[in-house]
Amino acid sequence: MKNQESEKLIYSVKDFNLWYGDTHALKDISLDIPHKQVTAIIGPSGCGKSTFIKTLNRMVELVPSVKMKGDINYKESNIFDSKSSVETLRTEVGMVFQKPNPFPKSIYDNIAYGPRIHGIKNKTILNEVVEKSLKGAALWDEVKDRLNENAFGLSGGQQQRLCIARALAVEPDVILMDEPTSALDPLSTAKVEDLIQELKKDYSIIIVTHNMQQAARISDKTAFFLNGEVVEFDATEKMYSNPNDKRTDDYISGKFG
Amino acid sequence: MKEKRIVINENKTNRRVAYNKIGRVLFFLSTAFGMIVLATLLIRIFTQGIGYLNWNFLTNYASRRPEDAGIKAAIAGTVWVMGITIPVSLILGVGTAIYLEEYAPRNRLTRFIELNISNLAGVPSVVFGLLGLTVFVRFFAMGRSILAGGLTMSLLILPIIVVAAKEAIRSIPQEQYEAAYAMGATKWQIIRTVVLPAATPGILTGAILSLSRAVGETASLLMIGAMAFIAYLPDSIYSSFTVLPIQIFNWAGRPQAAFQAVAAAGSIVLLVILILMNSLAIVIRNKYTKRY
Amino acid sequence: MQPTIRELIKEKKQARSSNSRIEKTMPKVFFLMAAFSILVTIGIVYTLLIETFYFFTQVSFVDFITGTEWYPFFGNDPSFGIWPLVSGTFTIAAIAMMVAVPLGLSSAVYLSEYASERNRKIIKPILEVLAGVPTVVYGLFALTFVTPLLQSFIPTLPIFNALSPGIVVGIMIIPQVASLSQEAMNAVPQAMRDGAFALGATRLEVALKIVIPGSLSGIISSLVLALSRAIGETMIVATAAGSTPNMGFNPTESIQTMTAYIVQVSMGDATFGSTIYYSIYAVGMLLFVFTLLMNIIANYFSRRFREVY
Where are the transmembrane segments (chain C) (predicted)? Predict the structure, then answer.
């Protein structure tokens, strides 16, 4: 891929507000998220970081009482535009969740799920996709001999990488990760973090994390959320060494959170 | 009763402990009573009917002589009626459950539908029989046919299937939906590829249990005029018919003890069918219990 | 180079406009199925109302609702006073509840407060089998076993009587009382029990003074539902209670319930359009109203119970 693309933006959020019923959960969010980098979102529980990431693929709309105002541009077009379908957006923007959530199907069927619902039935193509995605998620060597076994037989860490592979299968541009390692042991966490470093060559990654060290280890840029607002958004190195805002400093140095 | 100082009266404590022991014994005996009655009933029906239970009993038609009487037509009738009831009640029941769990907005109409279904579950089967008699037999002129019987029976067990299917769907964790939504799946795709596969064992278990109720159901079919004397096999859904429980009821009402024994023989067959159905439901439940 | 998956997906998407059509029709199809259940209720109410109306063009409503003689088959001079059927129905229901309430509630207390997890797992399915026995088999059991058994204690008891089917109906509804009441008792928070145990209360005291009061509306709901089933039960009474509409509450007499009357007429050859034919709808209407009321009452108590916890 071409080099100058890395300066491009994948998401541009302007004055975005969100309410759950009467609770104002996101307040005047404005963020420019770069293409093919890892953007971390940190902040204490309840600060709106999960809500924000779920807004990026419009999953937040599954909550019945949700109300939104403002613009979120994904590659130049507004994601709330009535002309663009949610399904297309979610095909281009994959998501990995806090708890591994494979389907109660075989490993193969889990990976082939995305391509299949989008109409791809050709066995040869599906075989290729499954192999490529599992390799992309660094899981191929561990499962290649038992593709037809139930995905629930895998360990927690393997399940999470399976979910990443499942997201990769439709070749998205963006992968959203909502605290992807919070349910994993340290060893599995390290594997997923290594994987994220690999993936950012080809994908834009936005990761919500509770773990500040993790954000420091893996991200290029970091956004600090507090009470539904973006306090600070900067290059990770800059933010961790010399934050602009007192509250960021307090959070990073562990004074609250 | 009110005591100023705390005095532990040992006699009183002993009495309380003794009451507790008596209570435990009484409660256990009450629980055991139900099981003893069940055992008595099974043994009684078995010993009463075993003498008439042979191959001829299964392959003969009803007869005026107890030793020639059989349940061939009744078994065939039950199978035919179920052939109508299973698809109709399953499609309507699962469809209703999908609507209520997946699509229905939280409004008054939805609440009304749910309340209505729970009330339908409490309507006595004779009333369903009256409905079947008026609507299917007379209004739609189906006559006293298998079709009318099967449809009446479908309505009767519909509420039970709806409740079972709703429970099966509700037990699917939210994460499964999220996974599919995040892949860009549409609502209907999610229902087809996530909800139905995960809910099928639960739905099947509930469906078999409610069908086993239909197999033993008598009153509503009597109402629509299933007859006890049928000496031929049904050849279409418009044939007149009888079913096993009606045959049993008919024999039980005869004054001769021999026919009551024949009724017991029929009861054994009916109970065996029901036990097989229930075992199947349990096997499905145990085999497909999902660990999420 | 072969196309990427993304390109393939785009291609397929354009080719499948039918997808959005399915997406739009399916909710409507499912809604129609759900709405069908309302149609069934309307059907029941409508048929009952219409035919009952015809019945009351032939028999006076006042005679029906106040009459104490039910002789529909008296050729020229039939009388349609509903009370004998109502009293028969409630005789059966009363006997059944006398059996099912103490035994069912005791079973529930045992299962919820005394039984070990293992015993509970064995006993509950057995009780469920008791609920799954077809009513026609219960009827046979009442007629050919329970009645002769009772006759050995009460030699004057006729073959057809209210006592035997009443007891058997009671046995049939034990599992319903037991399992619904046990669920209600289970919902009482353990912390409430622990509080009493910590003060030195025995299990019996905890059960009687904490658990039962705490789950009372759930228990009432289960009892009302059981009563509704006893009133609607048909085959046991049709087999073993005879067909003599007797006024009064004498359990040793042959009686007739509302359900049994409906079955008797529909098995006979009452001509379509005759007063007798319409009478089963009037009786059915009354039965429907009774059971509907009970379901509403049971729903009310069970909702109140769920609100508490």
Answer: 29-56, 80-105, 126-150, 162-185, 206-227, 276-301
| pLDDT at residue A84 is higher than 90 | no
Over 90: is that where the pLDDT of A230 sits?
A: yes
How many Cβ pairs within 8 Å bridge chains A and C? Answer: 27
Residues B69 and B35 in one domain: no
Statement: residue A104 has pLDDT above 80: yes
Residues B20 and B133 in one domain: no
Question: Can you give the pLDDT at residue C272?
Answer: 81
Domain boundary assignment for chain A:
3-252
Alpha helices in chain B (DSSP H): 10-49, 55-59, 72-98, 108-120, 125-131, 146-170, 174-182, 187-190, 196-216, 219-223, 244-252, 257-287
DSSP state of A121: -
Average pLDDT, chain A: 91
Which residue ranges of chain C lie beneath pLDDT 70?
1-3, 14-18, 269
> H or E segment at A175?
strand A174-178
Question: What confidence score (pLDDT) does residue A2 get?
Answer: 39
Residue A131 above 80 pLDDT?
Answer: yes
Task: Categorize the per-residue pLDDT at B285 as very low, low, confident or very high, splitting at 50, 70 and 90.
Answer: confident
Strands A23-34 and A77-78: unpaired
A232: β partners: A224
Residue type, A102: P
Q: What is the pLDDT of residue C18?
A: 62
Interface contact flag, B183 A152, Cβ < 8 Å: no
Interface of C with B in 21-80 (CB under 8 A): 22-23, 26-27, 29-31, 33-38, 40-41, 43-44, 47-48, 51
pLDDT band at residue A6 under the 50/70/90 scheme: very low
The tokens for A203 are 């994908």
Q: Could you tell me which of B176, C10, C2 has the C-alpha nearest to residue A92?
A: C10
Cβ–Cβ below 8 Å for C5 and A119: no
pLDDT at C21: 84
First to last CA, chain A: 40
- Residue B40: is its pLDDT beyond 50? yes
Which of chain C's residues have a Cβ under 8 Å away from the Cβ of A119? 9, 12-13, 15-16
Band of pLDDT at residue A255, cut at 50, 70 and 90: confident
Scored b (16 or more CB within 10 A) or e, C287-297 reads bbebbbebbeb
**Domains contained in chain C, CATH given:** 91-276+290-308 (1.10.3720.10)
Domain count, chain B: 2
Say yes or no: B30 and B94 in one domain: no
- Sign of the Cα torsion B98, B103, B107, B109 reads negative
Model pLDDT, residue C6: 77
Domain extent at residue B21 = 10-52
- Is residue C89 within 8 Å of residue C231, measured between CB atoms? yes
Share of residues in chain A with pLDDT > 90 (%): 82
Q: Is the confidence at residue A142, as pLDDT, over 90? A: yes
CATH number (3.30.200.100, 3.40.640.10, 3.40.50.300, 3.40.1280.10) of A3-252 reads 3.40.50.300
Neighbouring chains to A with at least 3 Cβ pairs closer than 8 Å:
B, C
Taking Cα atoms as reference points, which of C80, C75, C90, C77 lies closest to residue C52? Answer: C80
